[in-house]
Amino acid sequence: MDKLIHGRRSIRKYTQEPPPEEWIKKMILAAMRAPSPTHSQPVRFIRILSPALKEELHEAMRRGRENLLQAIAHAASANRLKNWVKAYFRYSEFMFHAPVLFAVGTTATFVSLSERLFRAGMREQGHKKHRDVDIAVGLALKGYLLKGEELGLGSCILTAPLIFIEDPETIFPLKGVEIKCFVTTGYPDEEPDYIKRKDFDEIYREL
Ligand SMILES: Cc1cc2nc3c(=O)[nH]c(=O)nc-3n(C[C@H](O)[C@H](O)[C@H](O)COP(=O)(O)O)c2cc1C
């Protein structure tokens, strides 16, 4: 367990060799074992195989970047924002070169009690309504990533593309799935540099 947890890193460069389909299925099966609120199992893995769909996403991302760059041209800290946009784009675009690409989303079938109370007019705007499903996505992805690590596959979760593609749901021919992130997978073609984790004392509190 320690070996898998400590060895896992986000991988953004992959060899061209496609991983065995059976392994990808094993990773999804590991994701499916995650706990979820009221056992609702709201997480969906949408494999993006169609070259036409990939190109449509890529094009939407490029358009989003151009729109953003134009919009911030006259902003107060335009240069700094521009550099951020470019960096986020770099940390998005590699997903189109990955052998395996998923959009990960949640179905709207799970309705928490706090959401029900909000709908009944008994709660303020349900600003935290995504909390349960977001936790479920994270837990499912952790199973997916660690199973991949065990098999020798690298992965990376991406939310940066959603800065550029604000409504990915309009591109996907799927009803009722809210896209939360993308995830790439393949045989690693890089060994990322060491990155320090925060100290235990910064993370841990006793009250
Ligand atoms: C919710 C989430 C969103 C992320 N989005 C991106 C992304 O859009 N692009 C990217 O290259 N990495 C992304 N990452 C990967 C993080 O940058 C990475 O996990 C972090 O730098 C720690 O590195 P490590 O995963 O190698 O330990 C994301 C990770 C998480 C958990």
Describe this structure in words.
This protein has 207 residues and is an alpha+beta fold. The chain has a single domain (2-203), classed as NADH Oxidase, CATH 3.40.109. The protein has helices spanning 2-7, 21-32, 51-72, 78-93, 113-119, 131-151, 161-164, 200-203; strands at residues 43-47, 100-107, 154-158, 177-186. Strands 1-2-4-3 form a four-stranded antiparallel sheet, covered by helices on one side. The longest helix is centred in the N-terminal third of the chain and has 22 residues, at 51-72. The radius of gyration is 19 Å and the shape is globular. The model has no long low-confidence stretch (mean pLDDT 94). The structure holds flavin mononucleotide. Flavin mononucleotide (FMN) binds at residues 9-10, 12, 91-92, 156-160, 181, 192, 195.
What does the average pLDDT come to? 94
Parts with pLDDT < 50 across at least 5 consecutive residues: none
Succession of helices and strands? HHEHHEHHEHEH
CATH superfamily: NADH Oxidase
Distance between the termini: 29 Å
CATH fold node name: NADH Oxidase
Q: Radius of gyration, Cα only, in angstroms?
A: 19 Å
In CATH terms, what is the architecture? 3-Layer(aba) Sandwich
Q: What is the molecular shape?
A: globular
Return the structural class: alpha+beta
Sheet with most strands: 4 strands, antiparallel
